[in-house]
Amino acid sequence: MKRILVIEDDAFMARAIALILGKHGYSLTIAQNGKEAIKHMEESEFELIITDLMLPFANGLELLSRYKRSQPRKGTPVMILSAITNEKTVLDGFDLGADDYLKKPFAPSELVSRVNRLLEKKENAHL
């Protein structure tokens, strides 16, 4: 079962993501803030990380930067899922190593498609 870390401070959104991806057989760990996210990233292995940008204790860009610096060879993809849509923020995310950026609100089928694509790309890279 593929493990996904979802970093989302909105409880309703976190439950929605868990429901959508859980139906497709993914195992999800939810972190509600930057502090919880860092703890999970240090203690567990994930096949994918999905993070919001506006979070308590550490924002999504800070988490992305920290994770990519500390785990450069793991190849774990990171998807940003955010309502922030200004071009500079999107580009900053990609510059820091994000593999995808999905804007809220999103279609559940698009989320699943992007998650599947990122996980397939990771698997193919390790063959």
Layout of strands and helices, then pairs:
Blueprint: E1 3-7, H1 11-22, E2 27-31, H2 34-43, E3 48-51, H3 60-70, E4 78-82, H4 87-95, E5 100-103, H5 108-125
Parallel strand pairs: 1-2, 1-3, 3-4, 4-5
Describe this structure in words.
- The protein has 127 residues and is an alpha/beta fold.
- The chain has one domain: Rossmann fold, CATH 3.40.50.
- It has 5 helices and 5 strands; from the N terminus they run E-H-E-H-E-H-E-H-E-H.
- A 5-stranded parallel β-sheet has the order 2-1-3-4-5, sandwiched between helices.
- Strand 4, helix 4 and strand 5 (100-103) form a beta-alpha-beta unit.
- The longest helix has 18 residues, at 108-125.
- The two termini are 18 Å apart.
Structure summary:
It contains 5 helices and 5 strands; from the N terminus they run βαβαβαβαβα.
